[in-house]
Specification:
One of its GO terms (cellular component) is cytosol. Helix content is about 35%, strand content about 15%. The chain has about 200 residues and is of the alpha/beta class. The chain is globular.
Length: about 200
């Protein structure tokens, strides 16, 4: 089995990239951090009235860890649809791959020993804000939410990673085309899988 992970600024393209990789890799499954958000009533509100979604306390992280460990124990019975591998994957038919995607993955210690590869999609402020404005959220972003909560939290967690010398993260430019990003990550995963099998 092989586990690789996508962390990203909001709207960085991680979910799209993960879904495309799933369709290209053999026996590949995805676990999304977004599926573990607490209901709105359980998410804290700060003094400005902002719901604090971009923090670990807004997520059922214990449940996420349990889901990952359950997959690791029995990937073959996880519901993964075995796809006919591409030629570059012919020697990887018996490998199971889990992609975990989210916005706060590498800052959570119980998960950090699991990763084979860590990818982090980044975006500059203006592009991130533009993409965020095109999305519809439930609950909807309140005025000033991006600047007052979302972006500062992204910078905080990214700085924590960059200041941790033991954290090996491959930073990817989220402004590049999906095709370019997909090609790079796919090739990188295949190389890593081949190394693991040697």
């Amino acid at each position: 089995t092989f586990y690789n992970f996508f962390n990203s600024v909001t709207n960085g393209g991680k979910t799209t990239l993960a879904e495309k990789l799933k369709n290209m890799l053999p026996n590949c499954d995805i676990i999304s951090q977004d599926d573990f958000f607490k209901p709105e009533s359980e998410v804290e509100t700060d003094e400005r009235g902002f719901k604090l979604y971009d923090v670990l306390d807004a997520l059922y992280m214990d449940e996420m860890v349990t889901s990952i460990h359950n997959w690791m124990k029995s990937p073959a019975s996880s519901g993964v649809v075995t796809k006919e591998p591409q030629k570059t994957c012919d020697n990887l038919k018996n490998v199971y791959i889990l992609i975990v995607e989210g916005f706060l993955l590498y800052n959570y210690e119980p998960l950090n020993k699991l990763w084979n590869r860590r990818y982090f999609l980044t975006l500059p402020y203006e592009e991130c804000k533009r993409r965020r404005s095109t999305r519809v959220y439930q609950p909807a972003d309140t005025p000033g939410y991006f600047d007052g909560h979302v972006w500062p939290m992204y910078l905080k967690y990214k700085n924590e990673l960059e200041e941790n010398p033991s954290m090996q993260v491959d930073y990817l430019d989220g402004t590049k085309s999906q095709e370019e990003l997909l090609s790079y990550v796919y090739s990188d995963i295949i190389k890593e899988l081949n190394k693991l099998r040697e």
